[in-house]
Design brief:
The protein is mainly α and 260 residues long. The chain has 13 helices and no strands. α4 packs antiparallel against α5, α6 crosses α8 and α9 runs parallel beside α12.
């Protein structure tokens, strides 16, 4: 029993949250690069914790603006702007790049080549507009506090889903970001998924009842579809694929959680 507790405490380290923040946000976190590199594979359990932080920041702005009479559409747009600022648009960029690569590439190498190009194409632009519009449309349909809870739940669960996809699929290329940060170990992946599911069942049920179960199913299906597509087309996942999976999961979960 003591050994199990020691193993768990070794896995759940506070600095892991800071390490995860260096990868998933633009927050001014300063850690020695060698410490980040050595600990990164074990820190993935903290990804949903970062999702909570992003959700609280965006939800706080949404609720504050809506509560003082700002039009709900403007409050929702401000919340999306906060999400993008905190994360540096990391996941949105991945979704756009994956849309360009998979939409314009006819072979695995060509798909990877297009995704590596920093320029955005027609498929990427359309994907970016659609995911932002879908998230905005979900937020204008809920009360301020429900919007906060939905953003926290979807933010945490979608980042837990990213960890699950990293664990289940190998990197598609050896020199990409996904390969460089490593793959989560079993315990880290399990904890991340448990945090995401736990928050969805706790907060999600409070605001959406059985809609929380629909949100879990919808998010899981969205990530599974992207994972299967990536496995078939490029033989694994990349940072762009992970970003697209996070966005697809967040969009579908927000839709399920905010159904009237």
């Amino acid at each position: 029993m003591v050994n199990n507790n020691n193993n768990l405490s070794e896995t759940l380290q506070a600095r892991d949250v800071l390490i995860a923040a260096t990868l998933l946000t633009r927050l001014p976190v300063r850690l020695p690069s060698e410490q980040v590199a050595a600990r990164m594979p074990a820190s993935f359990w903290a990804f949903p914790v970062i999702g909570v932080v992003v959700g609280l920041a965006a939800g706080g702005v949404f609720a504050a603006l809506a509560s003082v009479g700002v039009a709900v559409g403007m409050a929702a747009a401000a919340a999306l702007a906060v999400q993008i600022w905190v994360t540096g648009g990391l996941h949105e960029d991945g979704a756009a790049d994956m849309a360009d690569g998979f939409g314009g590439g006819h072979s695995g190498p060509r798909v990877l080549e297009i995704m590596r190009d920093s320029r955005i194409g027609a498929f990427g632009a359309m994907a970016l507009v659609l995911v932002l519009l879908a998230r905005w449309g979900a937020l204008i349909n809920v009360a301020p506090l429900e919007g906060v809870a939905a953003l926290v739940v979807a933010g945490a669960a979608s980042r837990a889903a990213v960890v699950g996809l990293m664990w289940s699929l190998p990197p598609a290329r050896a020199d990409g970001l996904s390969a460089l940060v490593g793959r989560p170990n079993d315990q880290s992946a399990l904890i991340a998924v448990a945090i995401g599911l736990g928050l969805t069942l706790f907060l999600g049920v409070a605001i959406a009842g059985f809609g929380a179960l629909a949100a879990i199913l919808a998010g899981a299906v969205a990530v599974w579809v992207i994972g299967q597509l990536a496995a078939r087309r490029i033989g694994g996942q990349t940072g762009d694929v992970l970003g697209a999976a996070q966005q697809a999961c967040e969009v579908t979960m927000l839709a399920a959680l905010t159904v009237s």
